[in-house]
Amino acid sequence: MKNLLITGGCGFIGTNFIRYLLKDTRFRGRVINVDKLTYAGNPENLLDIEKRFKKRYRFIRADICNRKLMDSIFNEFEIDSVCHFAAETHVDRSIYSSSSFIRTNVMGTHVLLELTRKYSDRIELFHHISTDEVYGSLGEQGSFSEASPYRPNNPYSATKAASDHLVRAYHRTYGIPVTISNCSNNYGPYQFPEKFIPLMILNVLEEKPLPIYGDGKHIRDWLYVTDHCRAVWSIMNSGRIGETYTIGGGAEIQNLTLAEMICNLVDRIKGRKNKSKRLITFVKDRPGHDRRYSMDFSKIRRELGWKPSEDIESGLNKTIRWYMENMEWVNRVRKGQYRKWIRLHYSERLKQRG
Ligand code: NAD
Ligand code: TYD
What we know:
Strand content: 15-25%
Number of domains: 1
Mean pLDDT: 95
Shape: globular
CATH architecture: 3-Layer(aba) Sandwich
Number of strands: 13
Helix content: 40-55%
Bound molecules: nicotinamide-adenine-dinucleotide, thymidine-5'-diphosphate
Largest sheet: 7 strands, parallel
Oligomer: single chain
Distance between the termini: 25 Å
């Protein structure tokens, strides 16, 4: 992997992955980060990386659906491996409008697979990042594994399922070297504050209502983002080609309990006593709301020796502290202020190529 294309590197997990890869691993190649910069992408996240790794990190603003532009990037940067994060990711948004999900998650993935096929003589690996949501909803018992049938229940998960099938089909049909990972809900630094954990943290800090969908007894299996990054890198290096790996945090917890934990932790850090739980507000449930997710990660543990290192309390503590220390980031992201910065700092690169 000399020239690794990372898509969606300015989003939550992509940012954490690039930081992890360049700072904490023995990777010596070059990262080409391609991101369209939707509302969820923020290139400021990687400003220090850009300065520190001038020769080994390059950001290009591009839409993965633009085949001509993506082709020129594969060609010019001699891309030999791909780690594909770029996606529309918020379930609630997909319920209101799913066109951009179909475009980016399905058609964008197709463009990347076609280019991987075109440049197959030098492509070593196409790693596809996916989600546990493709498997649908669990009852009270059991966990999803690599053998679970696909049963997506909302437009977001349906588009992720479609992309997984395309990746698998391109391997079986054209022999493209792929690996796929399906992971549970991530949390940690740089997550856009529309998702549950950062939304709860910020609303507790700002003493705003904490909206809990339905009865709050829906369960997610929370995975700290750096644990996820480590899992992805381990699959990219040592995973078996053509295989899927499921990744979970071993931290199943009901939404309501999680909200209460966040209230308690913030109250403790702030030195205020049992103040925040009163903010919990039950609201109308999300349609098609999956009741429970849980991931069996025994395959990646057995084959690659990976297991999560953070438990929910340690991960939440780190995350809460990060948000408390980065309120300027939060405010800029909320106001989309970095768009001005993009115009100033990337004016050259913003010129559409090809
Ligand atoms: P995110 O929404 O924070 O970031 C997505 C990034 O993709 C943004 O930077 C955005 O600008 C970029 N992007 C969107 N459309 C694009 C396009 N057409 N061309 C180029 N770039 C585009 O998402 P995330 O939480 O970092 O998720 C990353 C990946 O991980 C996604 O594939 C998602 O399905 C998967 N995943 C996420 C979670 C989670 O809990 N966050 C869990 C399982 C799987
Ligand atoms: P979310 O972060 O949107 O992730 P996903 O839908 O991909 O699992 O939501 C996590 C859980 O929290 C999910 O069960 C929906 C619930 N939820 C709320 O109860 N209130 C909220 O305001 C949000 C955004 C989510």
